[in-house]
UniProtKB/TrEMBL annotation:
It comes from the Bacteria. GO terms for cellular component: cytoplasm. The lineage of its organism: Bacteria, Pseudomonadati, Campylobacterota, Epsilonproteobacteria, Campylobacterales. Binds 1 zinc ion per subunit. Keywords: Carbohydrate metabolism, Cytoplasm, Isomerase, Metal-binding, Zinc. One of its GO terms (biological process) is D-glycero-D-manno-heptose 7-phosphate biosynthetic process. It comes from Campylobacter devanensis. It is found in: Cytoplasm. One of its GO terms (molecular function) is zinc ion binding. This is Phosphoheptose isomerase. Substrate binds at N54, G55, G56, E67, N96, D97, S122, T123, S124, S127, Q174. Zn(2+) binds at H63, E67, Q174, H182. HAMAP family: GmhA. Pfam families: SIS_2 (PF13580). Its EC number is 5.3.1.28.
């Protein structure tokens, strides 16, 4: 049906439009580069990344962690990355004992050390359990990176670096988050195990 074909095309067009906005935003491109190099530096110094999100953003956290630990473009040693969304025993214990809002904060407190990187993913920028984790990052001097939508929400003031996708549409934001995650993985991999960008 032609109407469905047009509907499909409109989704692609909307997704492309958001990515084109990112491409035209020099400051945003430079921020993504800065975050990728900060992440690279953390890995070179023996630290790890921790990632968290809810729903689709939880899937993105797991996806990015998988790229770090396994491989991205080429074979190389795995690098340490933990998705704080995957261990059902830990998640249900914290949820039961401390509440859903503490789901990631408790894990960052237990697993994180000064010099690690926490990547919090929230399309609204207002997910309470991410906000609480960011507060722990401040206390422990863990570098915090946020992936959010256009406003940045409450995360904008709590993250060391907040990458705001220029959209208010959840699917379009998530599509850009995974592209940004892939770019960070690719730069880290090339800088540590490839020829680098010099």
């Amino acid at each position: 049906m032609e109407i469905i074909n047009q509907y499909i095309k409109s989704h692609f067009e909307d997704s492309i439009q958001v990515k084109n906005q990112i491409l035209q935003d020099k400051a945003l491109i430079e921020l993504i580069q800065k975050v990728a190099l900060i992440t690279t530096n953390a890995y070179k110094n023996g630290f790890k990344t921790m990632l968290a999100g809810n729903g689709g953003s939880a899937a993105d956290a797991q996806h990015i962690a998988g790229e770090f630990v396994s491989r991205f473009y080429f074979d190389r040693p795995g690098i340490p990355s933990i998705a704080l969304t995957t261990d059902t025993s830990i998640l249900t214990a914290i949820g039961n004992d401390y509440g859903y809002d503490r789901l990631f904060a408790r894990q960052v407190q237990a697993q994180g050390v000064k010099g690690d990187i926490f990547i919090g993913i929230s399309t609204s920028g207002n997910s309470t359990n991410i906000i609480e984790a960011l507060k722990v990052c401040k206390e422990k001097e863990i570098i915090s990176i946020g992936l959010t939508g256009q406003s940045g929400g409450k995360m904008a003031d709590l993250c060391d670096y907040c990458i705001k996708v220029p959209s208010n549409c959840t699917p379009r934001i998530q599509e850009s988050h995974i592209v940004i995650g892939h770019i960070i993985c690719a730069i880290v991999e090339e800088e540590i195990f490839g020829k680098g960008f010099k």
